[in-house]
Amino acid sequence: MNIDPKLILFEETMPGGWNRSHLLKRGTALRLTDLEGGANMAAIFYNAHNPTERYNMPDTLKAQFISCIGKGCACYSDLGRILVSVLDDSCGWHDTISGVSNARTNERRYGSRSYQEARNGYYRNGHDALLLELAKHGLGKRDLVAPVNFFTKIAVDETGAMSFVAGNSRAGAFVDLQAEMDTLVVLCSCPHPMDPTPEYAPKPVRLTVWRSAIAPEENPCRTFCPQNERGFINTVEYCL
Amino acid sequence: MTIATLKESPLDPAAAVASTVVPAGEHWIRLIRAGQTLRIVDLEGNQAVDTIFYNAADYSDRYSAVDTIREQGNVYLSTGSQLLSSEGNVLLTISADTCGRHDTLGGGCSAESNSVRYPREKRYMHNCRDSFLAGLLAWGEGMDKREIVHNINFFMNVPISPDGKSTFADGISEPGKYVELRAEMDVICLISNCPQLNNPCNAYNPTPVQLLIWD
């Protein structure tokens, strides 16, 4: 889907390995574009007016009988409401079951590289980067929950074994997220902890926010499954 | 379906320092000291025992489902699984398991999620996250809703399929099956013995469980 340039409110390229947040107001949408291929963008969604309500991976999976995020599905809060709906997606699989990197996983994969050694090329990890961003909103460790890892595919076989699938996201792949309620989006572009690439090489992601304003009645995510019909009703009632 | 490593425990129930039965729909919260072993017995079969653990010295360091499954490379829990915290500490190790598979991706039921998963009028039914809240509020010490993280569902079977789907399947537990956990540090254990009446995995019949503790 092409975005009408007149509707764009904000656009920026977020370098690999960094963190930021955005207040995504109801009726606006965020496109994440993997500029080079192989990006990983961890995202957690919070009710902007009550951040104790936040993205809930188990509720999202079991409401829609899915184990990954993709086009047509919705990201649920722990209170039975939809924070963002996945309007479009050229990638096909976004992981939400394997968390983010931390100091130990970084050390194991890459070793360490301090700011003193590498200036802004130092090795950053998802856990610490998300906590830094959460702290800017008065949130902390108790608010850090399983994120969606956009652009990353973690396969699960019949025995439950998990594996990283290389090449899931190619240059130009994008995913469009519409806020169904005012949503604080907390982002981190550190490499996925299961990415076997030996070098620390986080990838940039383009952020585009636009006034999408697709009404709940016309949102194709609403008919993804009967559960989503009820999820949209819950959300619309809350936003009255 | 592959059944993980079944392992029986050598521990004698007569030597347990504590034993209690938790009825369906009740919560239970207690300190388990480093070195102690907790056994959860599925008395009547296919009961879901929703459980969260916290580092007793720092409640903001708590069980992390995603770190646990990623670091062990498998989405199901069984004998040998180390339960990791959000700060990377090993909270407990599953030391014995006669069931073979436990879920940690399905989460706990709530009034609000029931209104999505089932007809909307199912909102007004007793649920796990209300039990978790009751347990946290009873424990006090500043614990609140933010402590309700992605839990373990002992004895539950939630298969993940290679095509990106998930389902709630019939349970693989039976009366008397148990799982046993050795505390690697002082932990707080919070349990909601699930009251779910809308899910075929327990044949719509929530039942009691027994908890035993050894020093």
TrEMBL record, chain A:
**Any Pfam family matching the protein:** DUF1989
DUF1989 domain residues are 12-184
Name the domain of life this protein comes from.
Answer: Bacteria
NCBIfam families reported in the protein's UniProt record: urea_degr_2
List the protein's name.
Urea carboxylase
Which species is this record about? Answer: Geotalea uraniireducens
UniProtKB/TrEMBL annotation, chain B:
For the DUF1989 domain, which residue ranges apply? 21-188
Q: What is this protein called?
A: Urea carboxylase
Q: Upper taxonomic classification of the species? A: Bacteria, Pseudomonadati, Thermodesulfobacteriota, Desulfuromonadia, Geobacterales
